Amino acid sequence: MADALVSIDFADPTESLEKLSDATDDRSPIQSQADGGIVAQLRLDHPDLFLAPTLRDVPDVTVEPDYWTTVEPERTLVFVTVYGTAFDQFETGLETDPTVTDPVLVDRYPDRRVYRVALTDRAVTFTATTAAVGGRLLDLSSCRNGWQVQLRFADREQLVAFNDYCRDREISVTVDHLRVSDDGDDGVVALTAKQQELLTVAHEEGYFDVPRGISQDELADRLDVSKSAISQRLRRAIGELCASSLS
């Protein structure tokens, strides 16, 4: 739950951040939060989180927001890519979802569809607050109980401020992973955080062994995403690795 975040003990990187900041102050006239920091992988749940009612009714899809924009005062449009096969059920859910209105099918592909929706006043969001407290959104996708999000904060105070926002609005926060970000810690070149996590788990559990130690269905259950999303994510991750390594 939300209180779990503030009760977790981890090394406070403030001292190292200050030392690094002192070392770079003479090279840049602007404030820097680029060194160190905290990376948090969280699962967020609330009855009125953006698209949460649809996600609960249609668990066999994975939704990844592409971008959002405010086109006029108090009207925010969000473009999302939906992976899976239950598109009809997803569209039915959009029609009755109280967190969105005016759904539009923007594009169609064999393995995914792109939709545009407008936020309603009822929708609970967290991206603006992430920026307001000084954090940065690294990754965002749906899971069976809401949204899985990866955020980077410059220090513990920013993380606690985000947690306080969630607690005040009764947003459930489950901590999957917390780590202190190292300098230059960008993961594997060309891979997103979700792709890197998938390949890491697949490798550790023997997906690439003969015979396989874990199936795609089991990977989907392990990572709490749809089975079709696992297949597409594996294909894209391996393709990105090949393009990066062989180019």
From TrEMBL:
Domain HTH cro/C1-type: 212-232
Keyword Transcription among UniProt keywords: yes
Matching SUPFAM superfamilies: Sigma3 and sigma4 domains of RNA polymerase sigma factors
Alphabetical UniProt keywords: Transcription, Transcription regulation
PROSITE patterns xrefs: HTH_CROC1
Residues forming coiled coils: none
UniProt cross-references to Pfam families, sorted A to Z: BAT, HTH_10
PANTHER family per UniProt: DIMETHYL SULFOXIDE REDUCTASE TRANSCRIPTIONAL ACTIVATOR (PTHR34236)
Name listed for the protein in its UniProt record: Bacterio-opsin activator HTH domain-containing protein
Organism: Natrinema limicola JCM 13563
Species lineage: Archaea, Methanobacteriati, Methanobacteriota, Stenosarchaea group, Halobacteria
